[in-house]
Amino acid sequence: MMLNAAEIYSRRLISSGFDAKYLRDASYDVRIRSLIHKDPLGAVRQSEEEVPIEPQGIVAVVSQEIITLPNDVCAYASIRTSLSRIGLLAINVGIVDPGWSGPVSSLVMNFGQNTQWLKTSDVFLRLTFHQIDDLRQKPTPAVDPAKYDAELKSTFNRHMGPTFMNVVERMTKQLNHGIRSSILKNVPIAAIVVALMALVINYGTLKLENRLTPSEAVTSRAKVLTDEVDKRVALTELQNAQLKQQVEQLTKRVDELEKRR
Predict the structure, then answer these.
(1) How much is the pLDDT for 129?
(2) Do residues 110 and 57 make contact, with C-beta atoms less than 8 angstroms apart?
């Protein structure tokens, strides 16, 4: 069952930072307390003022409100429609578990073509609250906001770049490296396997014909089969060399892109 405004207020689900003008009929609009981002040099900053989000930019935002949920209430966080209309998207929204007591946060990316600005007190999430069966779990300790910010800042520093394309480029480079290593390692093996399979098939054919034809015919057939194996091996080696050349070109291109960043 979804809780209405009166129930949200009476149960004090927003235990700190509550403002009645952000309480709606069946939800509450959560506002920004601070923004965590990286400057152009890659240093992590935490700001309580206005921060620009360039196209492809990414920031982490932390709520002013402290959400305190009993064991029989969970919350669902969704992005504000007004933000998505201008190209801002919160990517890690979802369930706030029963028993949680602390701020909520989200990563916000700018998928639009224009620079957007976020500042303290801007609304970034909408919370709806839902009644569930009491799980009878032990109470969850309240989260210290300062510790929460520090952990979020550390995680952002380790895993995020100034833009979400940095993450895509890093993943692409890792993928290219994995593909390149796999090709270089497995293509020579594949060539050997093909050659061996050809030899096994040809040997079996040779043994069969040895029983059915004169020795002169067997000798002639053996030469034909041997020539065929040689052709297949030569073709495989040529394909191997071409593939290695393509991988080297791809590696060179990736390295050039890395130097341009």
Answers:
(1) 97
(2) yes
Residue entry with tokens 């341009």: 260
CA atoms of 117 and 53, how far apart (whole Å): 6
Domain segments of the chain as ranges: 5-162, 166-260
Query: pTM here?
Result: 0.61
DSSP per residue, 165-194: HHHHHHHHHHHHHHHHHHHHHHHHHHHHHH
Domain at 5-162: CATH architecture:
Distorted Sandwich (2.70)
In 3-state terms, what secondary structure has residue 228? helix
Residues 150, 144: Cα–Cα separation, whole Å: 10
3-state secondary structure of 95: strand
Q: What is the pLDDT of residues 99-115, one digit of tens each?
A: 999 999 999 999 888 99
